[in-house]
Every structure is written in structure tokens, then in C-alpha cells.
Amino acid sequence: MKLSAAAEFAVRGALVLAEHTGEGPVTLEAICSQRDLSRQYLVKIFSALAKAGIVTPVRGKRGGYLLAREPRAVTLLDVIEAVEGPITLNLCQHDPPRCDRIECVLRPVWAALQGDIRTRLGTLTLAACLAEGSAPHDPAGGRCTMPALPAGPMSQDQAPRAT
Q: Burial level of 109, CB count in 10 A (0-12/13-18/19+)?
């Protein structure tokens, strides 16, 4: 599973709002500069977050965005699905399934993995990310540097070994 850039930017932006809870609206410019994000792209992302009820736009000279709920009430699943739609690992996990193999032996495996991911993202709140340091920052620039996952298939050295 790979999250889109939109999902990652949405999480980064929502974390900035969580960091500034109680301080008033935060402008897109401030969010972009704190997390090195594209303003043009963030406008679209925050529109989706507002539509989902995660952020509230504030108009006017001192406008910007606020979290619509407390950081402890916004999960990573909320944020990601606001911009991505429902998280699915593969075609057979879509609703309705886009796989023609109803009796596939892997279907329960994929369903369990998808359930685990949704459960973890659904319990990890913005407040927990900030409190536990789950949103790592570059000490030099204060930018969110989410750890990257290895690209491509596992090499022979990375593959699990049978015991």
C-alpha cells in the first residue's frame, strides 16, 4: 500500500493545525512554509478536509484554517480517507470487490491486513502523533519528514526466512 502525496500532505497540514490548536486560524502560507508544501496543491487538499468536517475555513484578513475538532478526536484514518476515499489494499478489498475470484484463498489474508491498517490508522490521533513524536521533524528546518518505506519488492536479504 502506498499513500498518495495528497494523503501525506493532508496529514502534514492537519498536524500543523493540531500544533497550533487554541492559537486561532493558521494560514495556508504558514502551513506550507512549516512543512515545505505546495500552496496550490494544499488548497485542493484543504477543500476536501473542510468538506469532510476535519478543518474549518475562516475568512477575512486574519483568516486561515482551524481543526474542526480537538486533535484527540481526529484520526489519521479520518484525514487520509477525506482526501483518498476508503483505504483498500487491492482490488478484491474494494466495496464492491473488483476481483472476479470470489473464492480466492488470499481474500481473507488481504481483508485481515486491511482491517489491521484501518484499525491502527483509526486509533492514531493527531494528538497522539504529536505527543508520541510519531510525526518526526527535521531539527534543522522543523519540517515533517515522514520515514520512507522501501521501494519495490523485497530483496532476497529482506525476505522473511522460514524456520
A: exposed
The grid cell for 132 is 508520541
- pLDDT tens readout for residues 119-136: 999 999 999 999 876 444
Q: Which of the residue ranges 4-8, 11-15, 60-64, 99-103 would you say has the lowest mean pLDDT?
A: 99-103
User: Rounded to the nearest 5°, which phi and psi values hold at 75?
Assistant: -95, 160
Domains, the chain, ordered by start: 5-132 (1.10.10.10)
Rounded CA-CA distance 107/117 in Å is 15
- Cis geometry, peptide bond prior to residue 96 (ω within 30 degrees of 0): yes
Q: Which H or E run includes 84?
A: helix 76-84
DSSP 144: B
SS3 at position 51: helix
Q: What Rg value do the Cα atoms of the chain yield, rounded? A: 18
